[in-house]
Automatic annotation (TrEMBL):
This is Aspartyl-tRNA amidotransferase. One of its GO terms (molecular function) is carbon-nitrogen ligase activity, with glutamine as amido-N-donor. Gene3D superfamilies: 1.10.10.410, Uncharacterised protein YqeY/AIM41 PF09424, N-terminal domain (1.10.1510.10). PANTHER family: ALTERED INHERITANCE OF MITOCHONDRIA PROTEIN 41, MITOCHONDRIAL (PTHR28055:SF1). InterPro entries: Asn/Gln_tRNA_amidoTrase-B-like (IPR003789), GatB_Yqey_C_2 (IPR023168), YqeY/Aim41 (IPR019004), YqeY/Aim41_N (IPR042184).
């Protein structure tokens, strides 16, 4: 079942339950999916839907960090709830060790040996980890492995 179909079903459930958090989050994600569909000019693939969902999660994480730095705990709490709600739609996140192993294997496949190969490694590893690992973690891990 596609993400959009799942969201539509959950939207109906949230409406019946009068769950304001779920309604707001689902509507925002649906709006982003619709905007993306209009932008690309065709129906979204599962990969496209995952990209949009990842973008929504990333935006909330960044906002959460900014609010935490500004000492706005009320807004941080709201975003924590939204992130927890969105997590059920995202694929299972890989652990740091799993990410490091995939990156190590990719570095070996490519034969990368220095920071000059950073772009090649990132280009090869990101499709493998799409939606399963935070881009900042991947970036940090690749830099650490290539710096050795």
């Amino acid at each position: 079942m596609s993400l959009e179909t799942t969201l539509n079903e959950d939207l109906k459930t949230a409406m019946k339950a009068h769950d304001k958090l779920a309604l707001n989050v689902i509507r925002m994600v649906k709006a982003s999916l619709t905007n993306e569909r209009v932008k690309v000019g065709h129906d979204l693939t599962a990969d496209d839907e995952l990209t949009v969902l990842s973008r929504e999660i990333k935006q909330r994480k960044e906002s959460r960090e900014e609010f935490a730095n500004a000492d706005r705990q009320d807004l941080v709490d709201g975003l924590d709830k939204e992130l927890a709600f969105l997590a059920k739609y995202a694929p299972k996140q890989l652990s740091e060790d799993e990410v490091k192993q995939i990156i190590t294997d990719t570095v070996s496949e490519i034969g990368a040996s220095s920071m000059a190969d950073f772009g090649k490694v990132m280009g090869a590893v990101m499709p493998k980890l799409k939606g399963q690992a935070d881009g900042a973690l991947v970036n940090k891990t690749v830099k650490a492995l290539l710096s050795k």
